[in-house]
Amino acid sequence: MTAGKRLAAAVHLTHPTIGERLVLLPGDQVPPELAELITHPDAFLPTPDEDGDENGPDETEADEDDDPPTKAVRARKASTDTE
Question: Full-prediction pTM beyond 0.85?
Answer without folding.
Answer: no
